[in-house]
Structure formats: structure tokens, C-alpha cells
Write a structure and sequence with these properties.
With 131 residues, the protein is of the alpha/beta class. The chain is built from three helices and eight strands. The chain folds into two domains: 60 residues, Signal recognition particle alu RNA binding heterodimer, srp9/1 (2-Layer Sandwich), CATH 3.30.720.120; 62 residues, 2-Layer Sandwich (Signal recognition particle alu RNA binding heterodimer, srp9/1).
Length: 131
């Protein structure tokens, strides 16, 4: 017997606000039969292509310390650096820059969402294919 990942849960202080922030970052949408609304304490969004779901759950505690689990994001189009700039312009903050850590063209950038949850931006598939 094995299990599968039903969804990825993210603790936060504003489930609706954070789900709305992440939707354009990932291209996710609300569930068709369960739209998110202001005041909801649990908000789920879904990738229309893969079906992966993120569930934002309100908790009373603020984030403290480094995430023990995080998302690694790969741009669907374009490249890593353009995606980093897009997300910084959208309100993400840069936590660490590991570009070039393993030589030219390698590495990733660590960003944080508005509530401080870290995530990494990796090189795109096109960049990897050109390596």
C-alpha cells in the first residue's frame, strides 16, 4: 500500500489574500465548484493542467524561521532571471541568490511570498536543454 499527495498545505494569516497572490504566480485557479472569497479561512487553488492543488489555511501564529518544506518553481516559458524579475515586481522579496553556484548558468534564487514563505526559482526546461 502507498499514499499520494492530495494537496500541498500552506499555513498563513490571510488565506484568501495569499491564495490570490499565488494564482497569477503559478497560473492556478479556484476550484470550479468552490470559489475562494474574502473571509474564507481555507482557500484551495488548482493547476488546471496537472491538477496539483495548494490549500492555504489560516493559523494564528506568524511564520518563524526557515521553511522546512518549500516549492521549487521552474518557469513554464522564458528563463529563470526573467521570472525572478517578474515575481520581484509582483511583490516577492529576495532571500538568497545562488545563481552560478555550480558554474556559469547554474543555480537558483530563493524568494519569499508576502507572508515570508520561501520558494525557489530554478532554470527553465529550455535553459536546461541548452546547457
Amino acid at each position: 500500500m502507498t499514499s499520494y499527495v492530495s494537496h500541498t498545505a500552506v499555513d498563513c494569516t490571510d488565506a484568501f489574500g495569499l491564495s490570490e497572490w499565488w494564482k497569477p504566480v503559478l497560473g492556478y485557479t479556484d476550484l470550479p465548484d468552490d470559489p475562494n472569497e474574502p473571509g474564507h479561512t481555507e482557500c484551495m487553488i488548482v493547476d488546471p493542467d496537472s491538477g496539483h492543488r495548494l490549500l492555504f489555511i489560516e493559523v494564528p501564529e506568524r511564520k518563524a524561521g526557515k521553511n522546512r518544506l518549500h516549492l521549487d518553481l521552474r518557469p513554464r516559458t522564458g528563463d529563470r532571471d526573467a521570472e525572478v524579475e517578474r515575481l520581484l515586481g509582483y511583490g516577492a522579496t529576495q532571500v538568497a541568490d545562488h545563481r552560478g553556484i555550480h558554474g556559469p548558468g547554474s543555480g537558483w534564487v530563493v524568494l519569499a511570498d508576502p507572508e515570508g514563505n520561501e520558494f525557489c526559482i530554478l532554470r527553465s526546461d529550455a535553459e536546461l536543454a541548452g546547457s
